[in-house]
Amino acid sequence: MPVRRKAFARCGGAVRLPRRARAKGLAKWPVRSVLACAVLALSLGVGPSPFGDWDAALAGDALDQLPIKQFHSYEPAARSKRQATAAGILEDLRKGRKAWRKGRFAKARKAFERAARKGSIEAAWYLGHIYRLGRGARKNDEKAFRYYRTVALAYDADETSRMRLMMTVDALVRVADYYRTGIGPKKKRRDPRRAYRLYTIAAGHGHPAAFYGLGLLALKGEGMRKRPRRAIAWLVKAARLDHRPAAMQLGDIAARGLKGYVKRDPVAALSWYIIAARGLAEKDNPALFKRIKAIRKNLKEEDQKRALALAKGFRSLNAVPAAAPVARAVPAAAAQPK
Predict the structure, then answer these.
(1) Burial letters 258-287, b for 16+ CB under 10 A, else e
(2) Which helix (H) or strand (E) holds 16?
(3) What are phi and psi of 284, to 5 degrees?
(4) Taking the model in full, what pTM does it have?
(5) Which is nearest to 174 in space by CA: 139, 213, 121?
(6) Tell me: the pLDDT tens digits for 64-92?
(7) Quick one: how far is CA 53 from the chain centroid?
């Protein structure tokens, strides 16, 4: 068996979390072998993210095509309770997505809550975004965490539905974010080790925010041994997938320097900030533009031009086709800088 096929074969089993983790609600994750998948993903590299046409997928009606009617002798067959439930879920999802695209988030929330009560994973995923961002409801990270965890528990590495796989992988990242940072002033649910495990699974599917999360953990030595070189490699991988916070973090590292690993380099810092600011207005991320202005004030014009050239070179080297915009973990109507 070729080496690559062997690596994939080793990714087939389920991973059982430690007893303490199971007691907290994530009993048995039906996932591929974390170590084999992570090594495979990092050794082969990640090209354009499999989450690339996310907005287009959400805008379509792919989930509306479930067969809910059967015909016999030209007459509709009687609907079973299960078919009626499926029809109700689809109708609620259609209403929720339509309201979401129009920015009517409170109306979308009500429709998604009805669908979620009927068991819709997609509705729970949207509700996670609604409560995390505070769109259509007051921001509530605990509620967002619970909705995301519901979706994450449905993760199956062998899932045949691409959209369902994308949603569950994204939910893994969102749950991992909460384990990395904790919730509220008391840092409730903070568990960097568990965050590391979940990020690793999502990184195996090429999710840019997973590489970013791994980079932050390795940079600080949380949930794993402190590994600055590996942290920078993960952050660069996320930036190549157009992840703004990763590019901004790399700019901060270049601006300050990292003792023993990275020398202070204002030109490199400015180039990373320019990459992070692509397509943004100053009001979208005032902190980022403040850093850009501060660095430009102390740089010669020729150095500023060099930074711009570096940023343009990075963009062209890592360009993604316009038809497949790089991974948006949030649908377009709710996207906002972090």
Answers:
(1) beeebeeebbbbbbbbbbbbeeeeeeebee
(2) strand 15-16
(3) -70, -35
(4) 0.71
(5) 213
(6) 332 333 333 334 444 555 665 677 889 99
(7) 14
pLDDT-based confidence at residue 98 (cuts at 50, 70, 90): very high
- How far is residue 335's CA from residue 338's CA, in Å, rounded to a whole number? 9
Q: How far is CA 80 from CA 65, 68, 83, 116, in A?
A: 18, 9, 5, 20
**DSSP 3-state assignment of 120?**
coil
Question: For 10-80, where are the alpha helices, taking DSSP H only?
Answer: 19-23, 34-44, 54-59
Close Cβ partners of 23 (under 8 Å, ≥ 6 residues apart): none
Kindly report, residue by residue over 35-51, the tens digit of the pLDDT. Answer: 333 333 333 333 444 44
Neighbouring residues of 211: CB distance < 8 A, sequence distance ≥ 6: 46, 199, 203, 234, 235, 237, 238, 241, 243, 246
d(CA 124, CA 121): 5
Tens digit of each residue's pLDDT (9 = 90 or more) over 252-302? 999 999 888 889 999 999 999 999 998 889 999 999 999 999 999 999 999
DSSP code for 64:
G
